[in-house]
């Protein structure tokens, strides 16, 4: 990124045969039937692992899955991740039964050049989310080098993200650089018109990024449940739709800029159910007992036209409850418009990434981010804790004995 000093790259690391490299990845992937259901966050880190293996490194991979609250929980074990990584690398990837300790250290010590080991879920250890220095030191102790390729977790000041760079020579992985460079194009001199499409449930999650985007965007299109707080700010009837009353004044302020557009019509139902009765009504005409669950066809067409006329597009967040068929049309329409656009297009992770992949359109956009929260925080703040940690100088090597 032009205004953000780049961290070291893989080529800057003193990798040599037998060196043990700790690679932080984002393996917070959906599971189904004991298998990885969507492997985007795994396929995208393979270039980093392959580069290190070709350089002769023994690779120790670590990551987290879910929120197991600092203790082992079989629901969040990483065996499915190890299996899928093994498939992608065409080589068995054993799973250490712990993150730190004698058994993990012994398995790391036994690793030979080119081999890959996965440590058990980082969040089985309370020191991970607490950013405990002792846990970070234990994580770094058995290895020689550190690589962060976990863009999707780099907005967290967790031990595995910010701890090892202070103790080990370090670098960013291939995925992390690709993410930062792709998102950096949105921040620094984007081609215009620049249109952002934002959705999702809570407007409180997006207020900061909307403010940041107003400095760069020509138009911000708001859909999803978060739109109803904007409608409430306009004095419109929203029925039983999700509204955050304490955010109404902030939404009114954003609407006053004239560059934030909200849906003109909505799909409503009494309940979120595939068999529910649905209606399309003008925004602001939702009766009591009904809730808005998707943008309407008029809005979908308006948003698609705005995307079609853009030179840069960011999409983050679905337009409705797209997982339930009657409320998927708005999200599909935006996905198709983004895919058909000749603009520079970025899909900002999370549910929007899942949607565009589910619709089979991911190959037709410029960049699909692996990190929803991280992508928004980078846009909002211009930096991430994980990136800042990588830019710190590597520790000096110990003096010769």
Question: Could you walk me through the main structural features you see in this protein, from its secondary elements to its overall organization?
Answer:
The chain is of the alpha/beta class and 401 residues long. The chain has 2 domains: 10-175, Rossmann fold, CATH 3.40.50; 190-381, Phosphoglycerate kinase, N-terminal domain (Rossmann fold), CATH 3.40.50.1260. It is 34% helix and 16% strand. The chain has helices at residues 40-43, 46-54, 79-89, 102-110, 126-129, 133-140, 159-162, 174-187, 207-214, 227-233, 248-255, 297-308, 329-340, 350-358, 372-381, 385-391, and strands at residues 20-24, 31-32, 35-36, 58-62, 116-118, 145-148, 170-172, 194-198, 219-222, 237-238, 260-261, 265-269, 278-282, 285-286, 291-295, 312-316, 344-347, 367-368. The strands form 5 sheets. The chain has a 6-stranded parallel β-sheet with strand order 11-9-8-16-17-18, sandwiched between helices. α12 (297-308) packs parallel to α13. The two termini are 41 Å apart.
Write the layout of secondary structure elements.
Elements: E1 20-24, E2 31-32, E3 35-36, H1 40-43, H2 46-54, E4 58-62, H3 79-89, H4 102-110, E5 116-118, H5 126-129, H6 133-140, E6 145-148, H7 159-162, E7 170-172, H8 174-187, E8 194-198, H9 207-214, E9 219-222, H10 227-233, E10 237-238, H11 248-255, E11 260-261, E12 265-269, E13 278-282, E14 285-286, E15 291-295, H12 297-308, E16 312-316, H13 329-340, E17 344-347, H14 350-358, E18 367-368, H15 372-381, H16 385-391
Parallel strand pairs: 1-4, 1-6, 4-5, 6-7, 8-9, 8-16, 9-11, 10-14, 16-17, 17-18
Antiparallel strand pairs: 2-3, 12-13, 12-15
Helix pairs in contact: 9-15, 10-11, 12-13
């Amino acid at each position: 990124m032009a205004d953000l000093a780049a961290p070291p790259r893989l080529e800057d690391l003193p990798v040599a045969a037998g060196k043990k490299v700790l690679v932080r990845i984002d393996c917070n992937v959906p599971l189904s039937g004991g298998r990885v259901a969507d492997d985007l966050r795994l396929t995208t880190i393979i270039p980093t692992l392959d580069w290190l293996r070709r350089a002769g490194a023994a690779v120790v991979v670590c990551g987290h899955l879910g929120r197991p609250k600092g203790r082992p929980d079989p629901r969040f074990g990483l065996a499915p991740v190890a299996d899928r990584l093994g498939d992608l690398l065409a080589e068995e990837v054993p799973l250490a039964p712990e993150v730190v300790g004698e058994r993990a250290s012994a398995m790391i010590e036994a690793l030979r050049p080119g081999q890959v080991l996965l440590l058990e879920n980082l969040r089985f250890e309370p020191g991970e989310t607490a950013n405990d220095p002792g846990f970070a030191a234990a994580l770094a102790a058995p290895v020689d080098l550190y690589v962060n390729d976990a863009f999707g977790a780099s907005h967290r000041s967790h031990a595995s993200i910010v701890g090892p760079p202070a103790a080990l020579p370090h670098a960013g992985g291939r995925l992390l650089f690709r993410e930062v460079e792709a998102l950096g194009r949105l921040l620094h001199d984007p081609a215009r018109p620049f249109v952002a499409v934002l959705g999702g449930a809570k407007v409180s999650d997006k207020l900061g990024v909307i403010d940041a985007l107003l400095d760069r965007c020509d138009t911000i299109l708001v859909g999803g449940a978060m739109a109803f707080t904007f409608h409430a700010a306009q004095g419109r009837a929203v029925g039983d739709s999700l509204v955050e009353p304490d955010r109404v004044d902030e939404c009114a302020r954003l609407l006053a800029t004239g560059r934030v557009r909200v849906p003109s019509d909505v799909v409503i139902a009494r309940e979120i159910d595939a068999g529910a009765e649905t209606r399309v009504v003008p925004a602001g005409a939702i009766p009591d007992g009904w809730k808005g669950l998707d943008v309407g066809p008029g809005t979908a067409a308006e948003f698609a036209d705005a995307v079609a006329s853009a030179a840069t597009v960011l999409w983050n967040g679905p337009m409705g409850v797209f997982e339930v068929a009657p409320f998927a049309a708005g999200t599909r329409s935006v996905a198709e418009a983004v895919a058909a656009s000749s603009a520079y297009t970025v899909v900002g992770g999370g549910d929007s990434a899942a949607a565009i992949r589910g619709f089979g359109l991911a190959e037709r956009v410029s960049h699909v981010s692996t990190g929803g929260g991280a992508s928004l925080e980078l846009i909002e703040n211009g930096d991430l804790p994980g990136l800042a940690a990588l830019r710190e100088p590597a520790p000096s090597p110990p003096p010769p004995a």
